Every structure is written in structure tokens, then in C-alpha cells.
Amino acid sequence: MLLLPLGITLGLSFGAVPLSLAEVLKALAETIHGDTRSQNSLIVGQLRLPRVLLAAVMGAGLGMSGAAMQGLFRNPLADPSLIGVTAGASLGAALVIVLGNTLLQGSISLFGYVGLSLISVGAFTGGLIAVFFVYRLASSGNGTSVATMLLAGIAITALTGALGSLLEFYSDNQMLRRISMWKMGGLDGANYPRLWLASVVTAGVLLALPRYAKALNALLLGESEARHLGINVDRVKLALIIWVAIGVGTSVAMVGTIAFVGLVVPHMMRMLIGPNHIYLLPASALAGAILLLLADTLSRLVIAPTELPVGIITAIIGVPFFVSLLRNRHHYGMQG
Amino acid sequence: MSALQLNNVTVAPWGIALLEDISFTLQPGEVLGVIGPNGAGKTTLLNTIAGDIPLHDGEFLVHGKPYREWDRRSLAKTMAYLQQLSLLNFPYTVEEVILLGRSPHDTGITRDSEILEDVLQLADITDLRDRLYTRLSGGEKQRVQLARVFSQIWQKNTMEGTLLLLDEPTAALDIQHQQGTTDAIKELAGKGCAIVLVVHDFNVAASLATRLLALKNGKQVAFGKPLDVFTEKFFTDVFAADVAIVEHPSRSQPMIISR
Predict the structure, then answer these.
(1) What structural domains does chain A harbor?
(2) What is the DSSP-derived secondary structure letter of residue A177?
(3) Contact criterion met (CB < 8 Å) for B101 and A229
(4) Looking at CA atoms only, how far is residue B194 from chain A in angstroms?
(5) For the complex shown, is ipTM > 0.90?
(6) Which domains does chain B have, with CATH numbers?
(7) What is the largest CA-CA distance in chain B?
(8) What is the pLDDT of residues B85-119, one digit of tens each?
(9) Contacts of residue A222 in chain B, CB cutoff 8 Å?
(10) How many interchain CB pairs under 8 A, A with B?
């Protein structure tokens, strides 16, 4: 709990221009009073504060979405991108980058005022369309099969990946670089309008998902067992998919694909506090916020003043951790 | 009022009838043993009563009310189902697994922990309560799942108005816990719980069941008291098995021995 404000302060003070704690607090106070004359208050108030808060908000959303997906799929190795949202978003973004240069010049300014690039809109739409297809493929008259959804997610991910590669094949060098930079993810586009939008959406997700904590607990027993415990399994599934798609779709649209937060964070929390979703969901949100905050701070520090895409940092931290989980999961009673 | 009544139930989820024209009535406190060869439709019968398979024809009533008129949550408070296979692979503690059985109820922590103590004793797993479910043996897991379904419908004094479906509850158990589980089932039935029990062990069936339902190829081939149903001819006809039927040395129940 205490780590979050600490992480925020750290994120505010480290960067290309290192600031002391006192300077950060002074600059924050100046920002709150609307005083933006000093250089420090500009750096903290206009650059670092929205960025640090955006990192925390996105991390919280990803962490909780990951915990919900692992519960829904009854698979500790599931991750929010399984339902196709990330792959769909990547395709949407690539489409906008490639087509946008020629066709859509005019409309970019239209979206500019809400602080959203057209790329973000394309990514969000692409993500939701992909999830819709995955869900439809897995649904039949007898309800929705989680196992089919998993496979449908893989199929849709492969298809959008192929279409994305096709686009890259036909794009020029500048577009290619933009596509690959976007895919790596980054919080450098943070500003207040984006922060507000992300906060509203994530707040919705963070409030909605815990309502299904009891249902997720019962779902771990198995779908029919959950049904025999009086839970409307198909409705719960649909609600979880929709909220995760919206949450992760927004996060991919705003900051690109950020690997491993949704996968590793719920895992770590499960080891610390057990699999009960009543505690696991909020804990994963908190830990996701802290992890993404630290990763983003690192991404600004490693080769300052240039920034590394944050997706690289989370993957570099996440992969070794994940591998050690794979090898040691029997130590904390995880099977399957 | 009967606890469970099936009227000409037929189910055919893939076009082929898995159950055909099944009819019987079960009163509170009765134990119905469902027997039959592999693939006869025993588990399908339980799945049908639990609402997992849509009816093709006929209807059934739970506590006097047609199944389709029940809402899911109220039914879950009075009907519990122990399935054969458990998929749980997340590291819950035994206590947490059992308390999942209380999730349809809003009875509060005090009441739920009283029930937890009762069912821990009933299933003889008090010493396992803090262990991780994923690290238990097959038989231990089965007793935990049994305690979970007990907790879902448990009432201290009377269990009138509850229905319990058990699919091979004693299959993975050693003889001590087989006896313990048999006693627990009898205790529940003694309090008025109606129980449908799928079982392969005829001697367990004979000691527990007040009624037997024999299925073969989805059809009801016998229904009655164990003493009436169990004849050598019955075993030849239904199971194509050669058995001898003798009297139990200390109880008035038939014993089935392979010849």
C-alpha cells in the first residue's frame, strides 16, 4: 500500500533532469497552485505527473484484468491478450499508420483536441472487433466454451498477426518504424486529457471486476460446479470479457502493448496472498500500478536522456520472473 | 411433497437419446441408488437433474416445483451436486474450498464457520483444514469436495427440503472413509435430505439405498427396494455378470459376490 505513493514520488524525481525530494514537493505545490513559471514545476507538473499517474492507472487496469482472465480461463498462465484484444489493437494501429498517411490526414486534427491520436482510436476499435470475433467463435447454443475461446483467441491473434505483417510488407521505412515503436509501447505521449480518459475507463474496470470476485472463486471449481452454486456462468463470462476488453483495449490504445504485467502480477500476488479473488483482484491492481510505475521510471533512466519503450523493460523484468515461476510453481501448490 | 419427481424424462443432447422415458419419485429422507453398466446414463441422469442438459421430453419437479420455474440461486441453496471429476488446480486451502459451497447463501461468517466445523467432522477432514487442496491425494480431495457439497445444503437440525446428488462419492476412498462417508450420507438422509446416489459398488448401494433405479442404454430397467431388485437373474440380464446373492451376516441386506 505504501509502495504506491513512494513509487509515484520516485517516478517524479528521477528522469533526464534528476530532482531532489524537496524540489519535487515544491514543484508539486507550485503546480497545484497553478504556478507554472519555474522549470521544475514544468517538468514535474506538465511532463512527469501525468506520465507517472498514467503508468499507475494503466498498470492497475492491466494487473486486475490479468487476474480476472486467469480466473475465467482457470489457467494460471493466461493473460489478458489471450482474448485477442492486443493483437486486434496492433492491427488497428498499423492500419491507421499505413492508411492514415495518405487518406486520413484531415481527420487527425479532429481527434487531436481530446488528446487522442487517430492511431489510438484505430487500436481501440481493432481490439474490440477482435474480441467480438473471439467471443462469437466460442459461443454456440449451449453457451460459451472457455476452451474454444482460448483456441479462437490463438486463431484470431495469428490472423491479425499475418494481416499486420502484410501491411508492414507494403509500408515504407518511416511507417515501419512508427509501427514497431508503437508496438513496443511507451508512456511518453502522456498528457492530462489522456490521463483523464484512462482514469475514467480504468475506474470503471476497477469497480466492475471485483463484483465478480465470488463468481470467479466458484469458477475455479469448474464451470458446471459454479452453475450448481447458483451462478449465471454465461453472464459472468460475457461481463468479464467486455470489461477486460474495454480496459486492455484502452491501455493498448494509449500506451501500446505492455507485456507481462497482466500475466506476472496476478501470479506474484497469488503467491503472497492466495487465490481468493476477493483479495487477489485489488492486490493485483495495486501491484500492477507499482510495477508499471517502476518499469516506466527505469525506462527513462537507463539510457537517459533517450527513453526505452516501457514494453521492453516489463518484458526484460517479466520473462526471467515468469520462467522461474514456470519452473517452481509446484512450490506454492499450483498445478496445470 | 416429494423432493424429486421425474415424469417421462427424455434427453437427447446430440440427437441420440441418452435417457429415455425415465419416471420416478423420491421422498424426503429417501436415498435413491442409481446403478447400471458403464455408459448406461447414470451421470447423465444427475447432470439432467442439475440442469446441465436441456430436456427433450417430459418434465421434472424439484420440491414440488417444475425445474424451469426455479431461479438458479434459490435452487442452489437447496440442491447440491458432487461430480466425479474435479478440475480445481488453484492452490486454495481446504477451508476455502469448502466455504465456496456457502457462496449461494448470505448467512454471514459466524454461521458459515459453524457449518464449516460441522462438515469438516462429517467428512473426517478436520486435520486437513489448512492444507492446500492441490497437494492432497485423490481420496482426500474427494472428501473435501464432499464436505463442500454438504456445506452447500447443511442445516443443523432438519434437512427437509434439500436434495443431494452424489456421483460415486466413495469411489476413491479407503474402507475406513468409505464407511465414514456411508454413515455421513445416512445421517443426512436421517434428517430428511433426499439423496440420489450413483454407485458401482452394489454392497454400498444395498446398505444405503432405500430405492434402486437400474439403467441400461438410457432406459429404466428396474425400480424398487434393493431386496426386490437384486436377483441373480437381474445381474445376468442387466450386467451380463454371474453373481451369487447371500444374506449379510449382521444386517438384513443382500450381499453380492462375484462367482
Answers:
(1) 3-332 (1.10.3470.10)
(2) H
(3) yes
(4) 17
(5) no
(6) 4-258 (3.40.50.300)
(7) 54
(8) 787 888 899 999 999 999 899 888 899 999 999 99
(9) 83, 86-88
(10) 81
CB-based contact B91 A222, cutoff 8 Å: no
Summarised one tens digit per residue, pLDDT across range B36-92 is 999 899 999 999 999 888 899 999 999 999 998 999 889 999 999 999 878 788 889
Residues B100, A229: C-beta atoms closer than 8 Å: yes
Whether the CB-CB separation of A259 and A318 falls below 8 Å is answered with yes
Residue A71 DSSP SS3: helix
**pTM of the predicted model as reported, rounded to 2 decimal places:** 0.85
Chain A residues near residue B100 by CB distance under 8 angstroms = 217-218, 221, 229
Q: List residues in chain B touching A: CB distance below 8 A.
A: 47, 50-52, 72-77, 79-81, 83, 86-93, 96-97, 100-101, 103-104, 132-135, 152
| B246 CB-contact burial (10 Å; exposed 0-12 / middle 13-18 / buried 19+) | exposed
Specify the amino acid at residue B70: W
Give the separation between CA B31 and CA A318, rounded to whole angstroms.
54
Pick among B71, B82, B90 to test the A interface (most A CBs inside 10 A):
B90
Instruction: Please name which of B219, B225, B233, B220 lies closest in space to residue B254, comparing C-alpha atoms.
Output: B225
